[in-house]
Design goal:
This protein has about 60 residues and is an all-alpha fold. Helix content is about 55%, strand content about 0%. The protein is elongated and about 60 Å long. The protein starts with 11 loop residues before the first helix and ends in a 13-residue tail after the last helix.
């Protein structure tokens, strides 16, 4: 289960410390899995928003 940070007000320093502590608690394998999952999530979000993958450049002879 992912820990949740609860603050009464906005505190960027505590948010960053919390995020780094969480990432350090993960193994390398878990970090890469998280990175791949978030990348897929961003690609899907971009495609749903109308941004498609770039076209390949074709050289003409």
């Amino acid at each position: 289960m992912t820990p949740i940070l609860k603050l009464k007000g906005h505190n960027e320093k505590k948010e960053i410390e919390f995020e780094l502590r969480y990432l350090r608690s993960l193994s390398v394998k878990q970090r890469f899995a998280l990175m791949r999952r978030k990348t897929k999530e961003m690609v899907n979000l971009l495609e749903r928003s109308g941004y498609r993958r770039a076209f390949e450049i074709i050289k003409r002879a």
